[in-house]
Amino acid sequence: MNLTLKIWRQKNADDKGQLVDYKVTDISEHMSFLEMMDVLNEQLINKGEEPVAFDHDCREGICGMCSMYINGEAHGPDRGITTCQLHMRSFKDGDTIHIEPFRATAFPVIKDLVVDRTAFDRIQQSGGYISVNTSGNTQDANATPISKIDADKAMDAATCIGCGACVATCKNSSAMLFVGAKVSQYALLPQGQVEATERVLNMVQQMDDEGFGNCTNTGACEVECPKGISLENIARMNREFLKASL
Ligand code: SF4
Ligand code: FES
Asked: Ligand nearest 66 Cα, by number?
């Protein structure tokens, strides 16, 4: 298939940036979206032009790096997948595709489609950990019974890959789905209780300090999340926050 790409090009954080048109031809419907971008970059390199900078790593939906806003949607038109899992069969011959970086004040553009998501790292560092006895007297994990329901919910929350699609798609640039998942992952388990109070207070404080907006319950984050993280996690974080504040 032959496509027109309108891609956000921005030299650095200070550059104003603009959409630039490119043509790609003979794209197979079996290619992933990132492979299509590789084809474009080969063309640009062969012509002596600067390739389009974009983040990627695992290319199998695990690392959360491939942050692209495609035709107005985080990770493109399909649900429950990342950009690297999006295939060209989701588009038609002759289509024009708009490709932009994730946009949020807390995710400044570094270059082209690459944004700085270290704000998420700082939120994690503020509370995304537990204390474990490593003195040699460590208790066997199976000696702490956990209900199947809680274990499953904690596991579901832990599938968040920190991609930032929830922030990019939210009209308030809220990070509450991400932080809700990270708080819930520990709040549901006995191992997470030692730091429970300071965890939620510190993570919410860091989230606010980074400039993320507040949640107004539109639910766009849940729709665009590639891992199906539920809004229930935001409600749990709010309950944990209230409990910790009291
Ligand atoms: S909650 Fe979903 S959309 Fe947000 S960072 Fe985690 S995996 Fe990505
Ligand atoms: S490149 Fe790792 S999730 Fe897409």
From this structure: 2
Q: Note the pLDDT tens digit of each residue in 45-97.
A: 999 999 999 999 999 999 999 999 999 999 999 999 999 999 999 999 999 99
Centre of ligand 2 from the C-alpha of residue 217, in Å = 27
**How far is it, in rounded angstroms, from Cα 193 to Cα 191?**
6
From the CA of 55, give the closest atom in ligand 2.
Answer: 1
pLDDT tens digit string along 221-242? 999 999 999 999 999 999 999 9
Which among 57, 198, 32 is positioned nearest to 114, based on CA atoms? 57
DSSP character at residue 1: -
Separation of 98 CA from ligand 1 center, angstroms? 22
In a mutational test of the pocket of ligand 2, which residue from 37, 57, 160 has the highest number of ligand atoms less than 8 Å from its CB? 57
Distance (Å, rounded) from C-alpha 48 to C-alpha 46? 5
Q: For the domain 3-111, what is the CATH code?
A: 3.10.20.30
Domains of the chain: which residue ranges? Answer: 3-111, 118-245
Query: What CATH code would you report for 118-245?
Result: 1.10.1060.10
